Amino acid sequence: MKRPTKGFGRFFMNIKQWTSLGLIFLLGFILTAWAENKGAEKILIQGGASGNIDFPHHKHQNTLSDCNICHAQFPQNSGAIDSLKKSGKLEKKGVMNTCLKCHRDMAKAGKKTGPTSCKQCHSIKG
Ligand code: HEC
Ligand code: HEC
Ligand code: HEC
């Protein structure tokens, strides 16, 4: 029997074509994920008069599931926090409060977390 060649019949006809199209999309997806820019492993954050912060970026990426826990406040660019603070689009200590809140909540819950005291974070002169 001849297969239908009109309308939806023709649309679904060539399974091989659909399979290769699917593979192309899958490959694109894998390459995009692989090429994602994770930024520096460690970042020196400017902390004003209290001293700078030695921030372990990749350690947080490995522990936290979502980049946007932090990057909802500032984009994934070097110097983003400083330029947003300068232009008044981000409050001073706004990012710090995000850091602190998480560390405090986790400490209260008895989990392993980061520092909650000023000097443990602001330890680098600059
Ligand atoms: C716990 C907070 C936090 C998380 C989570 C986080 N980042 Fe970042 N990221 C930062 C900070 C802080 C900076 C420095 C911003 C600045 O220089 O003003 C930064 C900067 C960057 C930069 C800019 C390049 C650089 O090294 O300075 C890239 C790219 C980046 N992050 C990618 C990511 C990706 C991708 C994820 C998720 C897999 C992620 N970040 C998760 C805090 C975080
Ligand atoms: C978990 C780490 C952490 C802790 C703990 C912490 N800070 Fe910060 N602090 C930061 C980060 C990151 C910034 C820079 C980003 C921002 O301003 O939100 C900052 C910024 C600052 C600034 C500069 C604000 C500006 O732009 O002029 C001051 C001052 C400051 N912190 C004081 C303190 C004091 C005082 C304490 C203790 C009560 C403290 N910090 C505890 C991480 C921390
Ligand atoms: C949503 C939760 C969360 C946020 C937001 C977060 N942290 Fe942390 N932080 C952690 C956890 C969990 C650890 C412990 C990771 C580990 O030791 O494996 C940690 C550890 C640290 C440490 C100690 C690392 C070490 O090697 O001992 C520093 C310093 C630190 N965080 C700074 C920051 C700063 C600065 C920010 C904001 C820019 C920030 N954290 C935001 C959860 C968070």
SS-based class: mainly alpha
Give the full name of the CATH homologous superfamily of the domain at 42-124. Answer: Cytochrome C3
Radius of gyration, in Å, reads 24 Å
Task: List the total number of helices.
Answer: 7
Distance between the termini: 81 Å
Mean pLDDT: 89
Which CATH class of the domain at 42-124 is shown?
Answer: Alpha Beta
* C-alpha geometry: elongated
Strand content: 5-15%
CATH architecture of the domain at 42-124: Alpha-Beta Complex
Q: How does the major sheet shape up?
A: 3 strands, antiparallel
Question: Helical residue percent?
Answer: 40-55%
Bound molecules: heme C
Which blocks of ≥5 consecutive residues have pLDDT under 50?
A: none
> Helices and strands, in N-to-C order?
HHEEHHHHHE
Got a strand count? 3
Strand order of the largest sheet: 1-2-3
Give an account of the 3D structure.
By secondary structure, this protein is mainly alpha-helical. The chain has a domain at 42-124: Cytochrome C3 (Alpha-Beta Complex), CATH 3.90.10. It is 49% helix and 10% strand. It is built from seven helices and three strands. It has helices spanning 7-11, 15-34, 57-63, 68-71, 80-86, 94-108, 118-121, and strands spanning 42-45, 52-56, 122-124. A hairpin with a 6-residue loop joins strand 1 (42-45) and strand 2. It is elongated. The relative contact order is 0.12. The model has no long low-confidence stretch (mean pLDDT 89). It binds heme C (3 copies). One heme C is lined by residues 45, 47-50, 53, 81, 85, 92-96, 99-100, 103, 114-118, 121-122.
